[in-house]
Amino acid sequence: MPSRVIAGTALHTPTRGRFEALEDVLILVDAIGRISEILPRDHPRFAEIKAQAERQGNLTELQEGQFLLPGLVDLHIHAPQWPQLGKALDAPLEVWLQRYTFPLESRYADLSFAREVYSALVETLLANGTTTAVYFATIHLEASLALAEICLAKGQRAFVGKVAMDDARQCPDFYRDASASTAVNETRAFIQSVRDRAGEEDPLVHPIITPRFIPSCTDALLEGLGKLAEETGCLVQTHCSASDWESNFVQERFGATDTAVLSQFGLLRENTILAHSNFVTDEDLALIRQKGAAIAHCPLSNFYFANAVFPLRAALDKCVRVGLGSDISAGHSPSVLDGCRHALLASRARHSGIDPHLPPEERGLAGSTISVAEAFWLATVGGGEALGLPIGKFAPGFKFDALVMDLNAHGSNINWLPDLDTIEDVFQKLVLNATRSNIVMTWVNGAVVARSSAAQMRDDQAKQ
Amino acid sequence: MPSRVIAGTALHTPTRGRFEALEDVLILVDAIGRISEILPRDHPRFAEIKAQAERQGNLTELQEGQFLLPGLVDLHIHAPQWPQLGKALDAPLEVWLQRYTFPLESRYADLSFAREVYSALVETLLANGTTTAVYFATIHLEASLALAEICLAKGQRAFVGKVAMDDARQCPDFYRDASASTAVNETRAFIQSVRDRAGEEDPLVHPIITPRFIPSCTDALLEGLGKLAEETGCLVQTHCSASDWESNFVQERFGATDTAVLSQFGLLRENTILAHSNFVTDEDLALIRQKGAAIAHCPLSNFYFANAVFPLRAALDKCVRVGLGSDISAGHSPSVLDGCRHALLASRARHSGIDPHLPPEERGLAGSTISVAEAFWLATVGGGEALGLPIGKFAPGFKFDALVMDLNAHGSNINWLPDLDTIEDVFQKLVLNATRSNIVMTWVNGAVVARSSAAQMRDDQAKQ
């Protein structure tokens, strides 16, 4: 017996670059939020199961103009930077970090400030369709734990990391771990506390080991966190080869690339999430693939701070795991659909190059483009594979993390002409034009966790 | 006596790159929609004028969290392409044009289809803050006239062009003007009809002479339209040096650049709007400046179809007039605020380059970035100067075309912390993060022409 049945048309990209429409299907969801079965319209038990679910009050039926999309996966979010979203991006990276970002992050010693910001953040991300979020928090144990609790309370699938950063040469006095051992011990305590709260079996929220990036960590910290990953089986996230400065710094300190150094310290593991990775070499990509680690491609923040464009096409063609990251707040949008659009733009900039005064063949790197379906795959299945979770598409055994998209929603910018648009056209319009206004309902693990303001207002009216 | 007084804080960029906040001012608007005076808080008559306006029911007072921005100017929109917004952008330009765009545009022989699409388009653009729109329509006289009528009826400031394209070698059989003389005569009739409808004095809607682009026009048509511009004093718009193919085609046909050819035919005039202009030379920029023509920079569609990035910084530094174009539907967003964001990304791609495997100094064109304030200037004052209209900032003599932005609107993605954010931070957050949801009211020429769906729903509730 399914605990919930959803009737409607679902659109997804089950394999990279391949769009598929599941038209007028029944999606059966079990008690632990997993899709147990998907019944096509011509299935012999279709009408019976639908009628039964309706009688039992377990049926959700999509309306005309509504379509299901898989929930979106955001592999790279700095939760404490939420208050400065869209601010100070004219500043160079150093100023942005030292004058804005570190002072802001240091404020999360204040737990009530943390709770207020994190609640607003998680609600906004759910409303924008982010059903799985991978968070950097701050160095503060309590505030980081508050973020995990808020994700649990609001029903967002999440990985939450207490940030570790102890190197006095790179971290400001007012914002760093007291020592490598403190950072490792607090990370261990954080892992245990999150696991206690989220439960043993199929937890919605996971801890993740989070060295900020190599330059901000001493060797002792990197080594300690590597051992902790091995000891706890906890996933790891960090920044990797993000900019010229950062890559050169690591090269000078270790005589090796970020990827190689992370590997030496035991931090390059199955499902380690490497943010950016713009300057990885072919050898790095091979090592990342071999280890089963993954790249969080953050195209928007890359335009601002990366000094170049991540070779996405090359990574995909080498079958390296890649998903998308908003990189809040070095990226100024909380929307992973915006992330799809920016990944397309970055791939096209790489393809075409930038200088019209050069001959075409010298301008860009031909063959670097991705398709709309590939962009959406990155935002869903790609993110799921990066994390090793059964999310991102509609298939038996996968979690029912989904968005109800409404083309006719109040405030929609989508113009839909049923007699001119194929179902794939509708999909492309959603990926390229949908806004938060079109996301009328967000499901995580089989439960509704957000409804749009227009839908809420209609409910409020109905209640009056 | 002002016919309307608006009380609140207005944010704008009166000169290029300079942000200014007019805090807690009174903006006095006269009977023809022009700002007659702006009174600072400490003006001796401030309280008296405000009280008087309130008594007379002429006061609009902004609420906590609301700010005025100047209305946005979109210099390049293909109105008939609205139904395919966000569709088929994976296709190469030739396929996109021949298989999707020309067949769609040819449908506007059907006037009722045209009215339906154009009504939806103008409403959507007003809701997204586009107070001035420069439109390519189609070759159809009646449908193009319907667009002008709809702009008048809905109160959008607009330039509307009946497209002229007659060259059988480049235009499809099913969609082209019968001959050069037909196209010129119909354009002349169109200009007169729009002027009849919009009135002589300070019209809200203007006709604009619109050769599609040089490759689609015979010499006779280009010559005829150039003479028509001289005869009627009507502005001109066209595409210019948009891609490798197009630039090379013109070079082969005329042995000169687009800009030079347009000039020869009398089409490069004061306030001629040149869409794209990615491949203009330094000589072209000098000629554009000398003639007082302007460039509609369309960064989003450029990523898809331009083969390179427009040298925006260079154009600005040479004091060439530049504004922004959404290039609907080669651009997939109807929002000029998105246009600001894309202009920033394009400028940064040009600055940083795209290939991390090159040394930094060989990658990009250092010094190409623009600031957030410059991007917003392009979207407002820049667009106004391109068209020769007194719009885009809050100053006496300028039209009151304005947006009420609400940071606390339903569905807002902006996180605003008054004790952490300066007024300039608020401005940057609006430019980088505001969506249609934040635009609760749109004014053109001193009249409210759109209200957000949330605001409308609150009204509907109040009426019940």
Number of strands of chain A: 17
* Number of H/I helices of chain A: 16
- Proper CATH architecture of the largest domain in chain A: Alpha-Beta Barrel
User: Helical content of chain A, roughly?
Assistant: 40-55%
Q: What's the main sheet of chain A like? A: 9 strands, parallel
Provide the low-confidence segments of chain A as ranges.
none
At the fold tier of CATH, the topology name of the largest domain in chain A is: TIM Barrel
Main interface by residue count: A-B, 74 and 75 residues
Radius of gyration of chain A: 22 Å
In round numbers, the mean pLDDT of chain A is 96
Provide the CATH superfamily of the largest domain in chain A: Metal-dependent hydrolases
- Judged by helices, strands and strand pairing, the structural class of chain A is alpha/beta
**What is the CATH level 1 assignment of the largest domain in chain A?**
Alpha Beta
Percent of residues in β-strands of chain A: 15-25%
Distance from first to last alpha carbon of chain A: 35 Å
Oligomer: homodimer
